[in-house]
Design brief:
The chain is built from nine helices and five strands, in the order βαβαβαβαβααααα. By secondary structure, it is of the alpha/beta class. Helix 5 (153-167) crosses helix 6 (182-192), helix 6 (182-192) packs antiparallel against helix 7 and helix 7 (196-218) packs across helix 8 (242-251). It is elongated and about 70 Å long.
């Protein structure tokens, strides 16, 4: 395996579950979830995308915007200060407009933007962590809300597939690449809720440990730091659970993720 990364033992060039470098999702990685049809301009209404961090609000907004163009405003958090001042910029209004993280907009500025949208008959797509129905009602705008449902193993498997294919070593057959076991998918969904971002962190950690384990097995010299069976997420909230694994991944590049008792075969990746 000289010159290759440990992921070569899984038929991969690198960890397939990397964070997206920019907001949104590239089209080759886009998966269809249970979402409304793309918005139409000039409907004098709000289409609210409501969900937790990482659920896909920004990705869906940008996906729609590629099909139905319109001004887009991302509202930054208060910090860092260099960006926080942009929260106080007037919101754009157009026949179809996208306001991302709209719950961060100061109340007076949000009311003014909604009133302008109501008077002009705009369709406003808002991504938000908080239900903006009271603000929409006061501004006289009908609101239709879409809440992102919890992830399912089937949806998560569909999300994994193109990422594994994109990271594959040239010439490797699908049967010779990493396969995420059903139990890992199920437990990851339980830990991540509706957040694909959280799921990607959990699977990134799992794949890293799986690669080290597979590389050790391939060299017939497993070490204590490379378990012979790749770990899978646990159900509880300990540091070894999916949620704990995500936190550990942010603190350390090599978190400890022991396998679920009695499920080492279910958690093992497929290696030729």
């Amino acid at each position: 395996m000289s010159g290759l990364t440990p992921y070569a033992a899984l038929g991969l060039r690198h960890n397939p579950f990397l964070a997206d470098p920019v907001p949104g999702v590239a089209e080759p990685f886009w998966i269809v979830r249970d979402v409304p049809p793309p918005p139409e301009p000039g409907q004098r209404r709000i289409l609210q995308l409501l969900g937790e961090k990482g659920a896909g609000k920004t990705s869906l907004s940008l996906h729609w915007r590629r099909e139905r163009p319109g001004p887009y405003r991302y509202v930054p958090p208060t910090l860092p200060l260099l960006d926080g001042w942009r929260r106080f910029a007037p919101l754009p209004v157009a026949p179809l407009v996208y306001w991302d993280e709209a719950d961060r907009v100061p109340a007076a500025l949000l009311w003014w933007g909604l009133r302008r949208a109501a008077k002009s008959g705009a369709t406003v797509v808002v991504g938000t962590h908080r239900d903006l129905t009271p603000e929409a009602t006061r501004a006289g705008l009908p609101l239709r809300s879409h809440e992102f449902p919890p992830l399912t193993p089937e949806a998560l498997r569909a999300w994994c597939a193109p990422r594994i294919a994109a990271a594959a070593l040239p010439g490797t057959a699908p049967a010779d690449r990493l396969t995420v076991p059903a139990e890992v998918l199920r437990q990851t969904c339980e830990a991540a809720g509706s957040s694909l971002r959280e799921a990607s962190v959990i699977l990134h950690v799992w794949a890293a440990r799986a690669a080290r384990s597979a590389a050790a097995l391939a060299s017939d010299s497993p070490s204590p730091s490379c378990p012979t069976s790749p770990p899978s997420p646990l159900k509880n909230s300990s540091p070894s659970s999916p949620a704990g694994a995500a936190a550990s991944a942010r603190r350390s590049p090599t978190p400890s993720l022991p396998a679920v008792a009695g499920s080492s075969s279910a958690a093992a990746p497929r290696v030729s």
